[in-house]
Specification:
Helix 2 runs antiparallel to helix 8, helix 3 (71-84) runs parallel beside helix 8 and helix 4 (95-105) crosses helix 5. The chain contains 15 helices and 16 strands. The chain folds into two domains: 3-38 and 277-416, Aspartate Aminotransferase, domain 1, CATH 3.90.1150; 62-276, Type I PLP-dependent aspartate aminotransferase-like (Major domain) (Aspartate Aminotransferase, domain 2, 3-Layer(aba) Sandwich). The strands form five sheets. The protein has a seven-stranded mixed β-sheet, with helices on both faces. The longest helix has 19 residues, at 278-296. The chain is of the alpha/beta class. It is globular and about 70 Å long. Mean pLDDT is 94; it is low at 1-16. The structure holds ligand T4K. Ligand T4K binds next to helix 4 and helix 5.
């Protein structure tokens, strides 16, 4: 029986809806049938125990207490404090507003040093309040702020450093702490990717003056939308707690300029339920990570970023770098091939914040100071993972990679790319 007949026979069976390519003509980019009949996303939400979640939602409805620091929010905050070993957790409606509030509570103004290799929210949170994000280059080996490039960017207007633990791999915490202290700058972290990760066996959440997590649907741990500000500073925590609720100190007194950034009870119920499955989410991610590592190894010009196994990781991002000079096929062509096969890989963080508005208009030449960032944004690709994905899918994705690399020159020739 030839491969096409086999494919037709098994196409309808969910567990066999894929077929290894035997010939370049079978690639979807050349009109063949996609490897997957349904789209595989990079960040499908992990869902915990539905029964427990719906029970919690029913309880919320019975209580008629839907938001404004209800019992689910309070329990959720306590559980996060325990998990991370931090004094204060304040959960909020999303991480972008959390970054806004945390930076405002720290008194940041003027200029703040930040990577361009991050999700646009990091820069926007500053700019939204009239602070100028000053983009600093990254260390290509970590994808995080390069501490060696920070001091040259400090001016009399600089008030802080906002590091991002990209992919959940912690920043160079000691170096950043030292630089911030030496120059009397505030230091905070965008830890949107780093929930459940550690550095020197201390949980992320304990570094800088304040750290911010995202619990957006696409994060490995989600509350639909949501986030948290965590800090060990009592005074800062009480200020932030007031700021997320319009600045209200009691029914009639407003102590600060505040906003409405509160998390609602249903989101907190999702968070409480997700926390109960956190270890399972992480172990599925870790299993996929190990499979990708094994099955993609040896492909020329393909490097998969590694997580430090001596630390706690959430393994939520499968990140590869393509060096076209070795692979002879570009990251963008691979991305197009994968999309045609219904594998919706992503190019986070292409093209870098400095290439997006309003930053590109403010500073059209910023890229000259960001060679590593520019290089990285051309190389990096994220692949699907999480509990929505089975082992088999990972195998099929990797099989496709091996096929594409083995046939790179023919593919390029036919596509004239
Ligand atoms: N700082 C950093 C470093 C961040 O990465 C982020 C967010 C933030 C700050 C801000 O956090 P939040 O304010 O969002 O809490 C996604 C997420 O929207 C964003 O939260 C995340 N980073 C960023 C890295 O990725 P998009 O525009 O790529 O999302 P989208 O809608 O394309 O979704 C990604 C994939 O997930 C899709 O392929 C479809 C799938 N998906 C998505 C949703 C929303 C689902 O399967 N189900 C869903 O419900 O930004």
């Amino acid at each position: 029986m030839d491969a096409l007949v086999l494919d037709m026979l098994f196409w309808k069976k969910p567990e066999l809806m894929t077929m290894a390519k035997l010939d370049v003509n079978q690639m979807a980019i050349f009109g063949g049938r996609p490897t997957f009949s349904e789209k595989l996303h990079v960040g499908r939400p992990n869902i915990g125990n539905r029964g427990k979640f719906t029970q919690r939602v029913n309880d919320i409805l019975d209580r008629r207490w839907l938001t404004n620091g209800g019992p689910c929010v309070q329990e959720f905050e306590r559980k996060i404090e325990e998990l991370l070993g931090v004094r204060h957790c304040i959960v909020v409606c999303n991480a972008t507003i959390a970054l806004d509030i945390a930076s405002r509570a720290l008194g940041l103004r003027g200029e703040v040093i930040v990577p361009s290799f991050t999700f646009i929210a990091t820069a926007h949170a500053l700019k939204w309040q009239g602070i100028t994000p000053v983009f600093c280059d990254v260390d290509p080996s970590t994808h995080n702020l390069d501490p060696k490039r920070i001091e040259e960017l400090i001016t009399p207007r600089t008030t802080g450093i906002l590091g991002v633990h990209v992919w959940g791999r912690p920043c160079a915490v000691e170096e950043l702490t030292e630089i911030a202290a030496h120059h009397h700058l505030q230091l905070m972290y965008d830890a949107a990717h780093a929930f459940g990760c550690s550095y020197n066996n201390k949980m992320v959440g304990n570094f800088g003056a304040v750290e911010v997590f995202s619990f957006h649907a696409t994060k490995f741990f989600n509350t639909f939308e949501g986030g948290a500000v965590v800090t060990n500073d009592d005074e800062l925590a009480s200020r932030i707690r007031l700021m997320i609720n319009f600045g209200f100190k009691n029914y009639d007194t407003v102590a600060y300029l505040g906003i409405n950034a509160k998390m609602n009870e249903v989101s907190a119920a999702m968070g409480l339920t997700g926390l109960e499955s956190l270890d399972e989410f992480i172990s599925v991610n870790q299993r996929h990570y190990k499979s990708y590592q094994r099955l993609l190894s040896g492909l020329p010009g393909l490097n998969m970023i590694q997580y430090d196994e001596a630390e706690k990781n959430n393994y939520q991002y499968i990140v590869i770098e393509i060096d076209e000079s070795v692979s002879h096929i570009s990251r963008d062509l691979i991305n197009d091939i994968l999309h045609a096969e219904n594998i919706l890989s992503r190019r986070y963080f292409y093209p870098g914040c400095h290439q997006m508005e309003p930053y590109i208009s403010d500073s059209p030449n910023a890229g000259l100071l960001l060679p590593e960032t520019e290089n990285l944004t051309e190389k990096v690709l994220q692949l699907p993972t999480g509990t929505a994905l089975g082992e088999k899918e990972v195998h099929h994705i990797c099989e496709l990679f091996r096929f594409v690399f083995a046939n790179a020159s023919e593919i390029r020739h036919r596509l004239r790319r």
